[in-house]
Structure formats: C-alpha cells, structure tokens
Write a structure and sequence with these properties.
- Helix content is 45%, strand content 13%.
- A three-stranded antiparallel β-sheet has the order 1-2-5.
- Strand 3 and strand 4 form a beta hairpin.
- The structure holds flavin-adenine dinucleotide (FAD).
- The site of flavin-adenine dinucleotide has 12 residues, from helix 7.
C-alpha cells in the first residue's frame, strides 16, 4: 500500500534490525533505491478504478549501510515524529473549506439547498470544519512557541478524515445520478475500458461535467479513515496520550 510508489525513485522503510527489547525498538529507518535488484512494484486498482497505491516486494534486497538514517534501532522514534506531521497534514482544513463551498454550489444548482434537512447537514459540517481549523491553529501556535502539541495529531486525523468522508458523501447525494461518469462505450458488449481515464471526459447527459467525478472521489475517500493509521488506532493513541 505504498502511495504513488509506481513513480518513486527512492523510498524510506522501517525495517526490523533487532528482535531484542520491546517491539517498537529494534526498527531502523532505511532509504532504499527503488532500482535496487529485488525490488518489485505491483500497482493496486482501488474502488475508484485508479491505481494510487502499490504492493512493494523486497526479495533479498541489499542496502548500503550509508543509507541508514540516524541511529540503528531508533527508527520508530523518528517515524512517530513523521507520523504526527502526516496526521496533522491529513486534517487538510484548506481543502475542507474549499470543498464546503463546492458542496454549497452543487446543492444550490441541484435544488437540494432549499431542503432544510439537507441544509442542516451542511451547517453541521461547516461547524465541524471551523472547530477543526481552530484546533489546527492552536497546534501550530503551540508548536511555534516550542511546546510539543503534536500529541493530538491523532485527533486532527480522526476529525479531518471524517469531515472528508462527509463532504464527499453529501456532494454525491446532492448531485444524484450526475455524480457518475457517463461512458457511452460502456454499454457496448465486452467493454473493457479504463473507467478512471474516461471519468473526467464526459458528464452525464444534462449534468455538469465537473460533477462526473464525485462518485469515484466518494469511493476513493473511503481510504481516509484507514491510511496514516486507522481511526480506531488513533482513538487508542489519543486515549492514552491526551486523555490519560
Ligand atoms: C489509500 C492508502 C494509502 C496508503 N499508503 C501508504 C503508504 O504510502 N505507505 C505505507 O507505509 N502505508 C500506506 N498505507 C497503509 C496504511 O498505513 C495502513 O493500511 C493503516 O495504517 C492500517 O493498517 P492495516 O491496513 O495494517 O490495518 P490493521 O492494523 O490490520 O487493522 C484492521 C482493522 O482492525 C482495526 N484495529 C487494528 N488494531 C486495533 C486496535 N488496537 N484497536 C482497535 N481496532 C484495531 C483497525 O482499525 C482496522 O479497522 C496506505 C493505506 C491506504 C488505504
């Protein structure tokens, strides 16, 4: 599940270098040249029809000692720091604000904005996005003044990923059948085309072409509560490190 690994020239890996002590110790941080003999990459097709992630296999790959980052067996310490930045980044408040405006545009165009129950959903989403933005700003401000606030990165990841799933779902509900790509050729017997490649090309007749990727995006975004560490595991981390 290596994101965009099919384009990578280098990757960093956490590799077990010792089996002594706690499982978290004995892991080292290595840079691996993807062109090394024994590295093979197999793209995985996701629900949206696109290949965004890959199986990466290592068969007796040799890595020069100079590719070790930091101290041997301390890889998990470095990884935890990187992961907290990844999780803060996943919160992606800027995208959420932009997509909220897009959701409102689609809802108005499709007439569901006048439905009070639908508008309630948009309002609840907006409140959560504003709250998440405040939380991200608090973390950034604490970091700037030298305090370690990244303990709550898991919380930012949980809230941000759930918000992303909500807006992709609401957009699809608002656009209805127009959220599907229309591929005329798909009706031909034996059609084997690549749906993802065709998705951006045509909207459903009578619909907005830009809406034709809403359903594939909705499917793609099921990933957000899994990647970067699943949300269930983030809840455990927040319970242990923040709530005590
Ligand atoms: C789109 C996508 C891109 C990714 N990109 C990368 C990448 O570039 N590089 C990379 O290294 N990895 C990548 N991953 C892998 C990702 O980090 C893992 O899928 C994720 O951390 C979850 O681990 P897992 O798949 O082993 O699930 P598991 O740990 O097997 O979990 C399976 C289920 O059990 C639950 N579970 C597990 N442990 C507990 C627990 N203690 N308490 C409660 N529930 C628990 C989980 O929440 C989940 O629902 C990617 C994954 C996806 C989906």
């Amino acid at each position: 599940w290596t994101t965009l690994g099919q384009y990578g020239e280098w990757m960093f890996n956490l590799v077990r270098t010792s089996s002594e002590g706690k499982p978290q110790t004995g892991i080292s941080f290595l840079l691996i040249d993807m062109k090394s003999p024994g590295v093979s990459v197999r793209p995985i097709k996701l629900l949206d029809g696109d290949c965004e992630v890959n199986d990466v296999f290592f068969d007796n790959v040799e890595v020069p000692a100079e590719n070790l980052i930091g101290e041997e067996n301390k890889g998990w310490t470095y990884a935890k720091h990187l992961l907290s930045h990844e999780r803060t980044n996943i919160a992606d408040v800027n995208r959420a604000k932009r997509e909220l405006e897009r959701l409102k545009r689609i809802a108005r165009a499709e007439g569901v904005y006048d439905d009070l129950r639908f508008r309630d959903q948009i309002a609840l989403l907006e409140v959560d996005i504003v709250a998440l933005e405040m939380l991200v700003l608090r973390v950034l401000s604490a970091e700037k003044s030298g305090r370690n606030a990244l303990d709550i990165a898991g919380l930012l990841k949980i809230k941000g990923s759930e918000i992303q799933q909500r807006y992709t779902e609401l957009m699809m509900l608002a656009a209805g059948p127009y959220s599907l790509p229309y591929i005329h050729e798909a009706m031909d017997a034996g059609w084997q085309g690549d749906q993802a490649a065709a998705a951006g090309l045509q909207g459903f007749p009578g619909g907005d072409v830009a809406n034709a990727t809403l359903a594939p995006t909705y499917f793609n975004y099921r990933k957000t509560t899994i990647y970067g560490g699943s949300n269930e595991v983030q809840r455990n981390i927040v319970a242990q490190t923040v709530l005590g």
